[in-house]
Amino acid sequence: MARPELSAVAELLKPITWFPPMWAFACGVVASGVPITPQWGLVLLGVLLAGPLVCATSQAVNDWFDREVDAINEPQRPIPSGRIPGRWGLWIAIAWTLLSLVVATQLGPWGFGAAVAGLLLAWAYSAPPIRLKRNGWWGNAACGVSYEGLAWVTGAAVMAGGAMPASHSLALAVLYSAGAHGIMTLNDFKAIEGDRRMGVGSLPVKLGVDGAARTACLMMAAPQVVVVAMLWHWGSPWHALAVALLLVAQGVLMAWFMKKPVERALFYSGFGVPLFVSGMMVSAFALRAAGGGA
User: Fold this and answer.
1) How far, CA to CA in Å, does 3 sit from each of 53, 57, 81, 129, 245?
2) What region, left, alpha or beta, does residue 106 occupy, with left being phi > 0 and alpha being psi -120 to 50 degrees?
3) Do 31 and 78 touch, CB atoms closer than 8 A?
4) 199-241 confidence digits (pLDDT tens)
5) Is 294 inside any structural domain?
6) Alpha-carbon gap, residue 179 to 161, rounded angstroms
7) Which end of the chain has fewer CB within 10 Å, C or N?
8) Quick one: pLDDT at residue 198?
9) What pLDDT is stored for residue 91 in this prediction?
10) Positions of the chain with pLDDT under 50
């Protein structure tokens, strides 16, 4: 039986997508307020779990169950192009799931539980009969929770010795998960034709291009407004101001993006999303300065 080249496997696991959950994990670590140096080993293990394992698993699962859609939208991908032959895509997804679970056992009950939840969402997002991605509202929510919220919670839980993270940290994890819903919508603009033909109800398909663009921007901006208010209320005015300024910069880009959403979605992802995730880290440092929050 033909076997895939290692380069094709690496492309299937999409290292470029690992950054958001790794960054969110780091935000949870910072937000915990716990000294990092004594726990470097666990931190590195958590980063490995968040990106190269759980996130990579989600990419493999998605590409396997999306192979027919990708044959229309992106036929050069490893599975539709035949560079990942036979059922190797499915076997890789299963193997990476099991490996992720083994590593997650080293991160305490909350770290393990967050990893299990992330893996369940990864399979539920792409695999029938659930296939959350058929509905852009549910699918994007699952991705936002998995990529941002659960990764943040895992980082905070690891630093807390496997215990429940502080309430302020959990609140920020929830808000930035909600904001990530909009980020996921940006990724859907490149696949409108294939999604429409294959019955995938992404928001650009369900709401139209302009409606989806407005919704994406609102979903990204509204949680950040709440974050600014919460940081101010928690006694971190300078951090609140920094997040507010980052949001203003995003607003300028959003106005430009909404004029031509399909053509500008990729550019906005490249420049607007870094401003969003920078605000995440600023918020995390606000909690760290306050000793980890309530």
Assistant:
1) 21, 19, 14, 29, 50
2) alpha
3) no
4) 889 999 999 999 999 999 999 999 999 999 999 999 999 999 9
5) no
6) 28
7) N
8) 80
9) 97
10) none
Rounded Cα distance between 79 and 83, Å, is: 6
The whole-angstrom separation of Cα 19 and Cα 272 is 15
Report the length, in residues, of the chain.
Answer: 294
Sequence-distant (6+) residues with CB within 8 A of 223 are: 175, 176, 178, 179
CATH code at 53? 1.10.600
- Measured in degrees and rounded to the nearest 5, phi and psi for residue 216 equal -60, -45
- Number of compact structural domains in the chain: 1
pLDDT at 131: 92
CA distance 166 to 189: 37
Q: Which two tokens stand for residue 87?
A: 């059922």
CB 207: neighbour CB atoms within 10 A? 18
160, 175, 230, 247 from 166: Cα distances, Å = 9, 15, 15, 25
Residue 3, burial from CB neighbour count under 10 angstroms (0-12, 13-18, 19+): exposed
